[in-house]
């Protein structure tokens, strides 16, 4: 399962938060990087790795749809947000946009943020409710979707 977890990390958040950015940066060249972008970028990377670890160790699965966690993960960062992995990827994207002071990267980060929200609301939450029943309903009642009451239900 370790290799599935590593592959899932490379394919999913790895592509969204790192590889696609190369194509967005490449036409104009990367330009100077403003150090202030390192704050959300570094924080996001640490949070992302923490979430992947919790999925693997606690959930007995990966972040990939083809090998999802067998257990509902409600520890670590999942005590303060039901979707900290998405929050982490968004921090990475906004860190790149801020660091390179790039409108195209900011537009990409905004599009991904909207796509994540729609995916969570329309697909993941209904699936988790079916798979974990009352346990997920209780978890959903006490932990916000993102951070705090913003966009929560």
Structure description:
By secondary structure, the chain is mainly α. It has one domain. The protein is built from five helices and no strands. The protein has helices spanning 2-11, 13-25, 38-57, 84-99, 103-142. Helix 1 packs parallel to helix 2 (13-25). The longest helix is centred in the last third of the chain and has 40 residues, at 103-142. 29% of the residues are buried. The mean pLDDT is 88.
List keywords for this structure.
153 residues; globular; mainly alpha; 0% strand
Please give the structural blueprint.
Elements: H1 2-11, H2 13-25, H3 38-57, H4 84-99, H5 103-142
Helix pairs in contact: 1-2, 2-4, 3-4, 4-5
Unreliable segments (pLDDT under 50, ≥5 consecutive)?
none
The radius of gyration over CA amounts to 16 Å
Helix/strand structural class: mainly alpha
Mean pLDDT over all positions: 88
SSE order: HHHHH
Number of self-contained structural domains: 1
Total helix count? 5
Q: Tell how many strands the DSSP assignment holds.
A: 0
The gross shape turns out to be globular
Tell me what portion of residues adopts beta-strand conformation. under 5%
Share of helical residues:
55-70%
User: What is the makeup of the main sheet?
Assistant: none
- The CA-CA distance between the termini, in Å, is 33 Å
Provide a compact summary of the structure.
The chain has helices at 2-11, 13-25, 38-57, 84-99, 103-142.
């Amino acid at each position: 399962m370790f290799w599935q977890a590593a592959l899932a990390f490379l394919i999913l958040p790895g592509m969204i938060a790192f590889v696609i950015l190369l194509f967005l940066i490449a036409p104009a060249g990367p330009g100077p990087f403003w150090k202030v972008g390192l704050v959300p970028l570094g924080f996001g990377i640490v949070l992302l790795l923490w979430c992947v670890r919790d999925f693997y160790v606690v959930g007995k699965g990966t972040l990939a749809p083809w090998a999802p966690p067998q257990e509902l993960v409600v520890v670590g960062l999942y005590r303060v947000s039901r979707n900290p992995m998405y929050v982490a990827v968004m921090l990475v994207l906004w860190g790149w946009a801020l660091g390179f002071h790039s409108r195209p990267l900011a537009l990409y980060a905004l599009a991904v943020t909207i796509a994540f929200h729609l995916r969570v609301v329309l697909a993941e939450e209904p699936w988790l409710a079916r798979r974990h029943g009352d346990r997920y309903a209780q978890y959903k009642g006490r932990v916000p979707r993102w951070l705090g009451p913003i966009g929560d239900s």
